[in-house]
Amino acid sequence: MTTVVVADRNQNPGCLVQLLWFVFIGWWAGQLWIALSWLLMLTVIGIPLAIMMLNALPKVIALRGKERQLMIQVSEAGVVVLTTSRPSPNLLIRIIYFLLIGWWLSALWMELAYFLCLLIIGMPLGFWMFDRVPALLSLRR
Q: Which residue ranges of the chain lie beneath pLDDT 50?
């Protein structure tokens, strides 16, 4: 059996394009995006859309996509594709976490990340924090 690990990268624009996007659009659009998603969180019907919006926050702030790694195992029976990331916790645990901790902690986290992005020197840390919002919001991996 042969195993190959492949990195599936979304082709993000270059640093200069991301920086210009953030300076002219991302800083204000990101804050509006955060506010709108949290207003949707107040309604039961809006929660799924709000979570989708928060997962897309790195794209709104700085045109950043996600990278996935896949482990491909080739055997005589065929090709099996497995993700190398750890699975998310049980859905019930994620719901309880979201209701007790995730909603308020992720709001504080995003505002701190937003503030860091406003400082030129804090941008890398702020973007890294925005990339971690889904995990902090609902333990999603």
A: none
